[in-house]
Fold Sulfotransferase domain-containing protein.
Amino acid sequence: MRSGTTWLYGQLRTHPELYLPDKKEVHFFDRNYTRGLGWYEKFFPSPEEAGAFRGIGEITPRYICDPQVPHRIHEHLPRCRFIAILRNPVDRAYSHYTRALRAGNYAHGFQEYLDRRPDVFDRGLYSMQLERYLTYFPRENFLILIFERVMSNPERALQQAAEFLAVDPRGFDGHRMKRKMNASYPPRMSSLYTSARRTEQFLQSKNLKWLLKVLDNVKITKGAKKLFELVGSKVPLPRMDASIRAKLFARYEADIAALERLLGEDLSIWKGTFEKSGAPEGT
C-alpha cells in the first residue's frame, strides 16, 4: 500500500450509506477540468438517486498536491469535506520510486530518481499542501489520518471515518477491513507486464470494463491471463539506503514540525523511523 487510498476506497465503496464511482481516480479537478462539470457529474447518481446516500464522493490522491485544485473544488463544492491519509514522507517518496521500478519505467537508483523528479519530494510537503486547502475550507472539514496508524489499527481509522461522515460504522465490510497488506515487488518481465497493464487501464478509462468481463466469460482471456501471471511474477524490491533515508528525513523535518503544529498532533511515529532501512512498498 503506497498511502492507503486504495484500501480506503475499497472500504467506503462497501458502505451502503456512501456512494463512490466505479472509477477510483476521476481526476476531474486536475487533469480533466476542461471537460466541464457535466462530464464529472456522469460519475455520480442523479439528484433523484442521490437522496439514498448520506455521502457521495471520490478519491483522487493527486488533488492534495495540485495548487489549482483547492480553488476549483471550492468553486463548485464549497461545503465539501475531505479525508487525507498522510504517510511518512520519506517512505512515500520511496514508494513512488518503487512503483516506477515495478512498472518498468525506471531502472536506476533512488537518489538519481529524486534528482530527476523533484516533484516526488514536493509531494511529501504536507503542511504546505494542507495550508492551501485551509485558505478555502475550515479545519473541521478535514479528517487527517496517519498511514502508519491506519496500518496498525484499521478498525479505529474506519471508526473515525464513520464519525466524520456521519454514517454507521457497522456498514463497513469487516473482511476487507482486515485484508492483509502484502509487500509489493517489481515484475520480472517489466516491459511486457507494463504493456498488459496499460491495455487493461485503457479499457477501464474508456468505460470498457464490460468488454474485459465479456472476454473473460467467453474464455478468450484465459491464455492472456496465464501470460499476464507469468510476466507479472515478482522479485524483491531493493531497500532504501540508510544514509539516503536520514538525509531525506532532514529535508522534510521542518515541514513535519509545521504539520504537527497545524494538526496539533505528535508525529514522532515518523521521526523514529529515519535511521531504519526502507521497507518495500505495499499494495
